Every structure is written in structure tokens, then in C-alpha cells.
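Human: If only I could read C-alpha cells as easily as an amino acid sequence. Take your time, and here it is.
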Amino acid sequence: MNEKTEQREELDDTLTEGVAAMIAADAAVSHPEDLADLFLEELNRLWADPAPLEAL
């Protein structure tokens, strides 16, 4: 497999994990604003670690 394909798969995995975490959190969150905070936290985490995106 080439390097770009591997990096895209890693990015897909990361995004999938983030979406799964958000879905799981949705079940435990009683207020929509809490879910928004969780989403922003995950977005900030991905923003802080842009390594997989640099090579795309």
C-alpha cells in the first residue's frame, strides 16, 4: 500500500473514532449544549494533531 493510502486510512479511523465517541456521548448527555462542547473538544484535539493531514 502506498503512503497516502495508509495516511488516509489512519485519518478515516480517527474520524470514525471521533464520530463513535460523539454518538456514545449523545446517549449520556442531557443537554444539547453539552454535546456541542464535546464536539468542539474533539475538533480541537484533531486540530492540535494535524500530522495525518499534512501529507494529503
